[in-house]
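User: Just a sanity check before I run the rest of the batch. Below are the structure tokens for the first item. I only need the designed sequence back.
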């Protein structure tokens, strides 16, 4: 398994708007094409205005296939339009769980 760890930096004072749009529009699309996230968090201490989420894949080919299906979905394009200007930047990391990790 690989885990895609994504950190989004949201425009200050727009977190509620971003989360509401994600829940209503993106989450159903993500679930349809990618599955449920392993975790989805809002940073409370440390760098503020951040969302950190984890998505699990069998391997890199699985990630690329699922993302391609999601990206081809017209509803995903609409979601991106609705959230335009809310994400300042993002960081992506692909990680492998340690042998003893609870997430396999």
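Assistant: Here's the designed sequence for the first item:
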């Amino acid at each position: 398994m690989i885990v895609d760890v994504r950190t989004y930096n949201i425009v200050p004072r727009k977190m509620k708007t971003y989360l509401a749009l994600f829940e209503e529009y993106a989450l159903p699309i993500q679930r349809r094409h990618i599955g449920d996230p392993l975790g989805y968090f809002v940073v409370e201490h440390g760098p503020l205005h951040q969302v950190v989420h984890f998505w699990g894949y069998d391997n890199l080919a699985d990630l690329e296939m699922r993302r391609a299906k999601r990206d081809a979905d017209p509803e995903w394009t609409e979601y991106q339009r609705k959230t335009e200007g809310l994400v300042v930047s993002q960081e992506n990391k692909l990680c492998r769980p340690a042998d003893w990790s609870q997430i396999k």
